[in-house]
Amino acid sequence: MKFKFKDKERARQLVGVIEDYVPDRGIKIVHVCGTHEVTITNNGLRSLLPQEIDIREGPGCPVCVTPTRDLDAAVKIAREGAIVTAFGDMMNVPGTDYSLNDLKSEGADVRLVYSASDAVEIARSTQEEVVFLGVGFETTAPMTAAVLAEDPPDNFSIIPSNKLIPPAMASLMELPKNNVDGFIAPGHVSTIIGCQPYEPIAEKYEVPIVVGGFEPLDILYSIALIVKGISTGSPTVENGYPRAVNYGGNPRSQKLIEDVFEVDSGLWRGIGRIPASGLALRDEYKSHDALVKFDVDPEEGEDVLPNCLCPQVLTARATPDQCGLFGEACTPDHPYGPCMVGEEAMCNIWFKYGGRPQL
């Protein structure tokens, strides 16, 4: 394994700090970001760490946690003749019977877009109804809120499916025998929300939480802060990514979200409903809610597929290689479960880079 570090000496120093502070027992550290998993796996970080440390990915892949019912709603709306738009990674996610790409191959007008504003531009260029499948976390929610606040055309609507990360982190602590000892909080999300929303979790569950950047050294630094917090009994929130994240986050983005959305319970694929973890449109924006406009109320769908360990992977209770379907019946070209779809999905990442490289 050739490690891809620009500063190997700094890496050795951080690993030394981790070794000095790691307790004499197994500890589980959970990160909540697919980009973190790419960095960890592609750079072989697990093989650098003491064997006592087990790093898992939690529900940090927006594609993976988008519930089947929202995909089924998009499929139903497309069948009614609307133009349905979505991010590229969403196109292959299996719904109950179809993915969006399946529907596109049958002639439905399903289009890949890179932002909600792209979908608005499509709506401005046609008389047809245009629907945007609005998925993601606090990172993408402001962009969707911004286009809705700017008076989009009447033929534009969204399927609201944005999720909030801190409640999902708290939900992992409530799972029996999950034994999470610390979190690396997602850097992208934290540029929006800051550090404060993690403090109630650290205080209630007595776990250290470190906002982490995306370079290998950022990850090692975050782990060092976490194991030090565990060793010293100081379960606080620390900012390990100060070049991009400040304590208060981005107030303008937060206000956009607050003005357009209201917090609601959120349905997470493979996990279920998590209180106060979803974003629903406020009443003044309901005319742009595709579920209301098209009178779609799909059933919750089959989120847990037979023999698929995605629910366990998403809740940091299993790794992809523990699933009997991984790499055989389930591959990126033919995904069976949502954790094999998209660049931030843990099974997809492990398929590409290998999960536990050894020296």
Question: Your description of this structure?
Answer:
It contains 15 helices and eleven strands. It is an alpha/beta fold and 359 residues long. The strands form three sheets. The chain has a five-stranded parallel beta sheet. It is globular, with a radius of gyration of 20 Å.
**Helix/sheet category:** alpha/beta
Number of helices: 15
Which radius of gyration do the C-alpha atoms yield?
A: 20 Å
**Which range best describes the helical content: under 10%, 10-25%, 25-40%, 40-55%, 55-70% or over 70%?**
25-40%
Spell out the helices and strands N to C: HEHEHHEHEHEHEHEHHEHEHEEHHH
Key terms:
four-stranded parallel beta sheet; alpha/beta; about 350 residues; 15 helices
